[in-house]
Structures are given as C-alpha cells and as structure tokens.
Amino acid sequence: MIFVTSLLLGLIYLNVPAVAVREFGVPFAVGALIPMLLVVPVLHRVLIKGEPLRFPLFLVLALVLLVLHAFSALGSIRPHESLEIVIDWALEGVLLAALLVNVLRSRNDVIAAVKALVLAGFVMGTVVIIQQLAGATDNNYMGFGQLDSAMVSDSGQLQTRLAGPIGETNRFAQIMAVLIPLAAALAFTSAGAMRWFYWLATLVISGGMALAFSRGAVVALALAAPFALAFRFIALRHVVLGVFGAVVLLALLPHYAERVVSIGQVAVQSLGLSPGGLRNADGAARGRMTEMMAAGLVFVDHPVLGAGPGMAQVHYPKYAAKVGGKVRPGTRRSHNLFLQLAAETGVLGLAAFFAVLGVVVVGLERARRRHFKRDREMWAIVCGLELALIISLTTSLFLHAAYVRYFWLLLGLCVAASAVTSIPVLVRLLSRMLGETMVRLRPQT
Q1: Choosing a second label site near 101 at 20 to 30 A (CA), which of 27, 317, 442, 445?
Q2: Residue 426: its pLDDT value, please?
Q3: Residue 240 pLDDT more than 50?
C-alpha cells in the first residue's frame, strides 16, 4: 500500500487530475476521484489490519475552522458562493489531510511520501527547464508546461514566465519552493547514486522554481535560511554554496535578476524611504498593496466572522476606491492569505487558523528534538517539513488562498511525520546491545 499511496500523492502534486480535466476532457468527477482513492489504503489499515482511525487535535481544530467558515458564509452577501468555497476547503483540504494522517503511520510511509513529492517536483522542474531551453512556445507539454505571462526587461527582451502544470506562476513557484528543503533532506541522508540523484533533484526543482520568476519565493527561501541554520539542518558552507548557486542562476536569468533587485526597491518605497513612495513602485507592487489594504478595511467593517469566504474580492471595488493607489477594474483577490482570512472569516476564523498551525508547529518541534539523536534520517525529514511549512507561510504573505490541496497536503504530512516514533531504530539498538551482552555472558571454553 505504500506504493499506491506514494503514486497517488505524486499524481496529486503533479496536478494530474486538473490537467486531465482541462487538457484531455476527462469528466470532472473522474479527476476528483484520484485524491479520494487515498480512502483505499485507509480502509486497508482499518478493515484488514484492524488499526483504529486517527483523529488528533489537529483535525479537531480543522473542523472547528470549517464550522466557523460555514457560519461566516451564511452571513455573507452571497452565501451560496461562500459555501462552495467552504466545501472546497473541506474536500480538497481537511479531508485530504485527514486521509494522510490515517494512511501515513510509520517512518517508511512518511519517507516514501516525501520521496514521491520530490520526484513529482523533479518531473515538473525537468519539464519547465526543457521548455526554457527549447524556447517557450504555444506547446504546453500536454498541460505540464503552461505559460502564464511575459515580462520585458530593461533591455527590451521578452521572457515568458513558466507555470508548470498549475497555470499560475507564483503558485507554481510556491509549490516548488517547499520541495527544496525536502529534496535536500533526502540528499543529506542518502548514500551512493541516490545521494547524487537527490542533489540533482534539488537543483532541478530550484531551477523550475526560478523559471516562474516569482519574487515571493526568493524572499521565502531567504527567510527560511536562518531557521535551517538554527535547526543545524545546514552549515554555513551550505549557505555559501547556496548564495553562489543563486548568483550563477541570476546571471543565467537576467530577467529574474531584475525582479529580485526590485524587491529591495519595493521595500524601500513601501516604508516611505524613497521620494514619491509607492507611486514610483512597479504596477504589480502598487496593485497588490491596494488589494491588501482593501482587505484590511473589509476586516475593520466585519471584525468577528468576516464578510464570508471568497467575499474579499467581491468587496474589493468598494474598499479599493477608499484606499486609492493602483485600483484595478473588477474583483481582485487579497494576495495575502492572512489578510484574506481576516477579511473573510474575522478574528474567530483567523484565530482558528493559527490554532491549527500552532498544533502542527508544536508537533514538528517535538519530533525534531525527539529524532535528533535517535534517528537522523527522520530528523532530517522533519527539519525539511518544518522548513517547507515556513516557506509556504512566507510565500502566503504574497498569495491568497487558492489550490488549498497543496497547503493541506503539507499540513497532513507534517502531522503524520510528527506522530512517527523511532521504535525501529531503538529496536535495532536494543537488539545489538542484547547480542553484545549475550556474547560477554557466554561461558569461555
């Protein structure tokens, strides 16, 4: 069943169900069935192996979160639209996490799941790198090499942003960035040819992320580096190598280098340290600031349960006009997960969300300390997952809630890894100690 679970996780991360529906006309019900096939290994554990269902505190708080979202939806100006989003969170998010918590019960299960995700990232990275080398064209590589938008550099050259199987560059960069510490964890703990393969996978995934030309992903990786040092997951030499690799990559992708440099410019302008302030910032930055500030005003007017899931974008035209800045026509998403949750679900929904995150982080911290001396392989996996969560949350400062299955898949994997013990390792140690004791006690002839 480990193979079946790993295969399904790889297909989900590759966005195969959506690609099959969008590109090949597969019925939506058939595409939606792929993630639900995780029920099969769960039933095998419960009905065949006689193992009990798991329902940890994480899932209790997730259900509380859903209930609060539902109450908020009922009070919104468009309850039917809001309830559809709640259902998406329930089916694509919480249910997926619950299935993972119940199917991934051993260290081998968790490690196999991480390997499946890294392999999926390697495939996605390979596709977009080939696409870049071949020249971005209308060929979308059967839906796994979609194009999102184009940029013009200062030199007037055009560069198309690649979006993999997702179709949205910043989201594609996010799901690739979270895989980088996981691939590195596998490289640190593997040997021989597999060690080199996982280092190659780390490079390919990083390259795939870079070709989305996302600034938020760069910020997230930079902020995750100090945590990786504090965990002793990496050493200073790894940071130096990473910086060197980033410099080489930016030299190869001058369009990306221009966008990375603009991060500092936007930060200075946002703080009012530049003449003209945000008026001199690029259009994307000014537009996002307006969208975030509009979400903040929605929260001020709906502080308890919010305006309802999905309603921040509906209220955008009204509140953006008050904010000013770059007001775009039509509805606009908040481009910040936390501001969006505050605007749409209020203080109660935001508190429930942070409670879910708190339980996950506490579990990871305990597991990281527990495995540090007992099981270095599992320790590296837990470190990688904690760093992946940090990267996901940091990129969410620039992204709204969409493709929720990726976020809840990561949460479910984190909770499953936190529950794994090092019993197999301890059994081996005890067996070795017992064997050595028996040798010492054996009568000498």
Answers
A1: 27
A2: 47
A3: yes
Q: What is the distance of C-alpha 200 from the center of its chain?
A: 21
Q: Which of 403, 380, 398, 318 is nearest to 17 (CA)?
A: 403
Burial class (CB in 10 A: 0-12, 13-18, 19+), 316: buried
The model scores a pTM over 0.70: yes
CA–CA dist 313, 299 (Å, integer): 12
Q: Are 256 and 213 in contact (CB under 8 A)?
A: yes
Residue 85 has pLDDT above 80, yes or no: yes
